[in-house]
Amino acid sequence: MDDWRDLAACRDEDPDLFFPISDTGRSLAQTRRAKSVCHRCPVREPCLRWALRTGQAAGIWGGTTEAERRVFSRQSTG
């Protein structure tokens, strides 16, 4: 697979969906919608690996939130 992004389910979605402004209130519904796109994505794992490797601090990547990726990062370095 040369570029996993070519196969991403999010290619046809509004990019703003994947960048909720908070992790409370109405943003929780936005996060759930973004994650539902990720959960049906055939390249979810490469997306998550890329986000972890490149230190993506904002947004939903590979079906994970910023906080969830911080946990992954701590587990891999600890």
Automatic annotation (TrEMBL):
<keyword id="KW-0238">DNA-binding</keyword>
<dbReference type="InterPro" id="IPR003482">
    <property type="entry name" value="Whib"/>
</dbReference>
<feature type="binding site">
    <location>
        <position position="47"/>
    </location>
    <ligand>
        <name>[4Fe-4S] cluster</name>
    </ligand>
</feature>
<keyword id="KW-1015">Disulfide bond</keyword>
<keyword id="KW-0804">Transcription</keyword>
<feature type="binding site">
    <location>
        <position position="41"/>
    </location>
    <ligand>
        <name>[4Fe-4S] cluster</name>
    </ligand>
</feature>
<keyword id="KW-0479">Metal-binding</keyword>
<dbReference type="GO" id="GO:0005737">
    <property type="term" value="C:cytoplasm"/>
</dbReference>
<dbReference type="GO" id="GO:0046872">
    <property type="term" value="F:metal ion binding"/>
</dbReference>
<keyword id="KW-0004">4Fe-4S</keyword>
<keyword id="KW-0411">Iron-sulfur</keyword>
<dbReference type="GO" id="GO:0003677">
    <property type="term" value="F:DNA binding"/>
</dbReference>
<comment type="function">
    <text>Acts as a transcriptional regulator. Probably redox-responsive. The apo- but not holo-form probably binds DNA.</text>
</comment>
<feature type="binding site">
    <location>
        <position position="38"/>
    </location>
    <ligand>
        <name>[4Fe-4S] cluster</name>
    </ligand>
</feature>
<keyword id="KW-0408">Iron</keyword>
<protein>
    <recommendedName>
        <fullName>Transcriptional regulator WhiB</fullName>
    </recommendedName>
</protein>
<dbReference type="InterPro" id="IPR034768">
    <property type="entry name" value="4FE4S_WBL"/>
</dbReference>
<keyword id="KW-0805">Transcription regulation</keyword>
<feature type="domain" description="4Fe-4S Wbl-type">
    <location>
        <begin position="9"/>
        <end position="71"/>
    </location>
</feature>
<comment type="similarity">
    <text>Belongs to the WhiB family.</text>
</comment>
<feature type="binding site">
    <location>
        <position position="10"/>
    </location>
    <ligand>
        <name>[4Fe-4S] cluster</name>
    </ligand>
</feature>
<dbReference type="GO" id="GO:0045892">
    <property type="term" value="P:negative regulation of DNA-templated transcription"/>
</dbReference>
<dbReference type="Pfam" id="PF02467">
    <property type="entry name" value="Whib"/>
</dbReference>
<dbReference type="GO" id="GO:0051539">
    <property type="term" value="F:4 iron, 4 sulfur cluster binding"/>
</dbReference>
<dbReference type="GO" id="GO:0035731">
    <property type="term" value="F:dinitrosyl-iron complex binding"/>
</dbReference>
<dbReference type="GO" id="GO:0045454">
    <property type="term" value="P:cell redox homeostasis"/>
</dbReference>
<keyword id="KW-0963">Cytoplasm</keyword>
<dbReference type="GO" id="GO:0047134">
    <property type="term" value="F:protein-disulfide reductase [NAD(P)H] activity"/>
</dbReference>
